[in-house]
Structure formats: C-alpha cells, structure tokens
Amino acid sequence: MKHLFTVAAALALPLSPAYAVQETASSDYSEVNADKLALAQTILDTAYPDDSHIALFQETTEQLEAQMTQGLDGIITDEGALEIVKRWQEEASEETDAILLRSIPSLMEAWAISFAATYSTQELEDISAFVATPSGQAFMTKQTKIIAHPAFAEANQAFIEETLGVVTNRMPALIERLQSYEASKTGG
C-alpha cells in the first residue's frame, strides 16, 4: 500500500519536493545567470523569511496529504482497511516531516534557481518590486491558503479521487511489468 500511495502521489500531484531536491543535488545549473539568481533569491527572501519556511512547506504538504487520504475513501470501501491506511499515512507523515525539514534549504535553493531560469531579468525586477509591497507579500504568503480554500480543495479533491482511481486500476499492470523486468534481469 505504501507504494500505491507513493506512485499515486507522484502521478496525481505536481513535482514533488523530494524529486526537486534530487534534481538540485545532481544537476549543474551553472548556466543560470548570477544576477537573475540574486534577484530570485531576493524575491524569496522578501516573500518567505527564514522563519516562515517550515510553516510554508508543512501547510502545503498537510493540505495535499489530507486530500490524498480523503481520495482513498472512494477507493477503499472497507472501513477497517481505510482506518489502517489512514493510520499508516499518519505514521509515514511523521517520518516525511523530518525529511521535509532537512530538505527545506535545498528546496529554497531550487526554487530560486527555478525562478531565475524561468523569468526574464525585467520580470524578476517587477516581481521583486511587487513582493516588497504589502499586497505582494500577502499574495506570496497566502498561497497555501489558496489550496486550502474550500473552492480549490473541492476541485482538487475531485481531481485526486479520479487520478487515484486510475492509478489503483493500473497498479496490477505496473507490478506485473516490474516483476517481469526484474525476472528478465536475473534470468528467471
């Protein structure tokens, strides 16, 4: 079941923080303009001071986990099994919270690199000026409230439930393919 949740999360959600950290650690981003990177870092430092990082990532993660867990309600119909999965998720969350805390510096670095690579210098200057205003800071810091808002959460929940259904239905084929692949490597 752990693998189902992991695969479902990877397929149902945007790029996961763990993947982002892996990519940052193993890739060369020397082509990112240093001036643009400095502007991107200024944007993030202004919008998300160091003392807000934990709450920013935890709020986002908790909201998405809650929606993923709720999505299982339609897939797992046995109440006892559903309770086991929910308890498992709570236990796994304790471990993943520790990973998240350890990953925040890499995530923030990757975020700055992504900003620098995505936006032009002029766009970064404009964003920096906006983020320096009270409205700009509110816009950036309230993004986690956006995904928690009932309107967005409801639409996202429908997406997650449908996606989990597809993943669940396709899981036996994936397992079969992986087992066949593993058998072909060992000659058995």
Write a structural description.
The chain has about 190 residues and is mainly α. Helix content is about 85%, strand content about 0%. It is built from nine helices and no strands. It has helices at about 1-10, 15-25, 35-45, 55-70, 80-120, 120-130, 135-140, 145-150, 150-185. It starts with a helix and ends with a helix.
Largest sheet: none
Structural class label:
mainly alpha
Average per-residue pLDDT, rounded, comes to 79
Could you give the order of the helices and strands? HHHHHHHHH
Question: Number of helical segments?
Answer: 9
State the total count of DSSP E strands: 0
Evaluate the radius of gyration.
20 Å
In terms of per-residue confidence, which ranges show pLDDT below 50 for 5 or more consecutive residues?
1-26
Envelope shape: extended
User: In what range is the share of β-strand residues?
Assistant: under 5%
Share in helix: over 70%
The CA-CA distance between the termini, in Å, is 26 Å
Layout of helices and strands:
Elements: H1 2-12, H2 17-26, H3 34-47, H4 53-71, H5 79-118, H6 121-131, H7 134-141, H8 143-148, H9 150-186
Give keywords:
disordered N terminus, 188 residues, mainly alpha
Summarize the entry for a quick read.
By secondary structure, the protein is mostly helical. It has helices at 2-12, 17-26, 34-47, 53-71, 79-118, 121-131, 134-141, 143-148, 150-186.
